[in-house]
Amino acid sequence: MQNRVTVTVGGLSYTLLAAEGEDYVRKVADYVNGKMKETAQGGKISQLDCAVLTAFNIADDRFKEQDASENLRRQCKELMEENSRMKMELSEAKREIFKLQQKR
Hints:
The protein has 2 helices and 2 strands; from the N terminus they run E-E-H-H. The protein has helices at 22-40, 47-102; strands at residues 3-9, 12-18.
């Protein structure tokens, strides 16, 4: 189901069709609007330049977050592999202890 939501970004109104709920669409629009205000704080730039620079900034944030996410996934995978190795070592040590106890 498509939702029709009207939002204001950069002082202009846009009517969007979205599969997501109205609250989510407004949250995204508020985020973009806030980023545009941050971009425009540097001085007088056209609305188009502000929108393009904001798009670059948001894309930059996205790629940095994607890299951070990949690093976390890699670290989790490495830790899981290390955990698996440690479990195997523990199991082997328990078998060795059991053998030594049986020799007494």
